[in-house]
Amino acid sequence: MDVVVIGGGQAGLAAAFYLRRAGLEYVVLDDAPEPGGAWTHTWESLRLFSPAEFSSLPGWQMPPSRGGNPDAAHVVDYLRRYEERYEIPVERPVHVTEVRQAAGGFVVVGVDGAHETRTWRAPVVVSATGTWSRPFVPAIDGRSTFLGRQLHCSRYVSPAAHEGRRVMVVGGANSGAQIAADLALDPAVPEILWCTLDEPRYLPDDVDGRELFRLASARVRGEEGARGVGGLGDIVVVPPVREARDTGALRRLPMPQRLTRTGAVWADGTTREFDDLVWCTGFRPALRHLDGLDLPRESGHVVTDGPRVEGVPGLYLVGYGDWAGPASATLIGVGQWARAAVDDACALLGRGTVRRR
């Protein structure tokens, strides 16, 4: 075995594509029982920021979707068919609990669907576990005393679960804006409070995933004047967000000072009551399986050069976001970082580089 890939979502599959092309022996260990990665857990109204032809993994373009940009079900079907098309050797479900260094590389320890502990040995490990399994909720006074329902956006499904209930949505990025709009446009949800730390930074209405990828790629290439995605804004104005914003249904409030048993209190003394609270406050990298490696960290992140972990030859992180490669957490953007990881692994193993076609 040359390589163990941990994670069978979009990043793991992109790595597998290039490992297959390089002729390396590898296996993909996936925690989930079915293909699709995090896309199997998203809310019903979620759609990609771009058309299918601009949302593809390396090698095979995503088939077109009906009714606009692809929804999550379309992406899940694409990832399932991608596995089949390239005969990717995925073992699932396997929950990887530990990666440790050993003579000749690494030992990967996991528990399979039969609850048996198994081990794999390889000189190279690609971690592609993403962030979805580690939702983040910030500390705020009174959170434990609130008697209503609290859920992270990773568990939000649709407005149907909130009919007749007043909802506060917390978070000023894409998930917060989209879920707040989803709720605000449903007449069965009587009231929406959308709370963010700062004023929402909407991207220009004509900017979608294609432009975001172009900007991220320009930054990777070091083009003069490339400002990256952050220079434009934080929120892609997908149609529901545009409608809710333009009709006044989506109005932002500052973050409350504290929660109460039935609502929240703001710094100016204002109080509001609500029934449900949806935290759209992001995720953290799912890297607990690497805790035993004592990896170098800076500003809370593992220190990497692109996908390669500094000081740990043979270990790569693919698909965790901009700190491990701009646009690496997107379908269209992860391929370049998966290829970089496999090229580096080939050099480490003395196998040349990935074949070009």
Automatic annotation (TrEMBL):
Keywords: Oxidoreductase. InterPro entries: Auxin_biosynth/cation_transpt (IPR050982), FAD/NAD-bd_sf (IPR036188). One of its GO terms (molecular function) is monooxygenase activity. It comes from the Bacteria. SUPFAM superfamilies: FAD/NAD(P)-binding domain. Pfam families: Pyr_redox_3. Signal peptide: none annotated. This is Putative FAD-dependent oxidoreductase. It comes from Mobilicoccus pelagius NBRC 104925. The lineage of its organism: Bacteria, Bacillati, Actinomycetota, Actinomycetes, Micrococcales.
